[in-house]
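Teaching assistant's notes for section 4

Start the section by putting this record on the projector. Ask students to predict, before seeing the second block, whether Hemin uptake protein HemP will look compact or extended. Collect guesses on the board.
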Amino acid sequence: MSEPTRQPTLTLRASTSNAARSRSRNLSTAVLVTPRASSEGECTVHAAEHNEHRERAERTLSSDHLLQGRSHVFIAHNGERYQLRATRLGKLILTK
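Reveal the predicted structure now:
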């Protein structure tokens, strides 16, 4: 029995600058691109399929929603407790 044919996948990563990286600890964005052959035999990229998946996986919560008028909240993550705090200058600080 032969193995199923896998479509080639290309992952592109865009990293932040070195100065920003030292402040933000290696934030990066991954874009998943799956090439497919068109009816003319050309290789085309269908990123629209992945946009729906990305939109479902990527959610944005406002800090107002998280803090609900308080100066800080605690977040449980992987058995650890973290504090998310809003500063007077409008910055957010996450500490363990």
